[in-house]
Amino acid sequence: MSLLLSLDTSTTVCSVALHRDGTLLGSYELFTERTSAAMLTTLINNVVQQTGNELHQLDAIAVAKGPGSYTGLRIGVSTAKGLCFALDKPLVAINTLAAMTEQVRDFFPVDYTLCPMLDARRMEVYCAFYNQQGQELDVTSAQIIDENSFHNWLTSGPVVFFGDGAAKCKHLLDKSPKAMFPDVVVQPSARTVGALATLAFNSGQFEDISTFEPFYLKDFMTTQPRKPVV
């Protein structure tokens, strides 16, 4: 028996879910800007209490480790680690793109390649490639997209691009007849983080809570303040 609380704050979505043995008991998701810092702990308490459970009953805390928003990932991982320390529970970390793939993989034939994409500003995206079984075919990376991107993948078979990064790049990638784009934007969700975390929990794949850091993938970018005009 396992009771897992899962968090995903990889993007502007603030998402929490509770699973027992891989079965979803409840979830909350907010799709508004800058909600993670203000609402995450409230959503956690709501999903635990309203499913008739208590925090001390949890067997582990799972978190989407990235890639994604620097600030969002920092909030989610910090909250998850704080709960682990306070409750003396193990930490499970799931790749955000793998969890996104879990949302769509059952809807496509076995010979389709799945490419989740998250917006990384301008024409850059965080992406990876998975098969229909959810197995990673290429490492997660940051890519600057142009009309020649992913030529090798698109010549070998149909590729489904999804996520907010795919929506941004569609006008460049849809020139290939093998590039496919779902009508609905797929957002990261704690529901599929929890589904994958259950498998990781059962196989004992835990993180070192004291040293674990989010998978930022690239350095945090800041802008230089302008000098005041004298």
From TrEMBL:
GO terms for cellular component: cytosol. Gene3D superfamilies: 3.30.420.40. GO terms for biological process: tRNA threonylcarbamoyladenosine modification. Residues 33-147 form the Gcp-like domain. Signal peptide: none annotated. CDD domains: ASKHA_NBD_TsaB (cd24032). This is tRNA (Adenosine(37)-N6)-threonylcarbamoyltransferase complex dimerization subunit type 1 TsaB. The gene is tsaB.
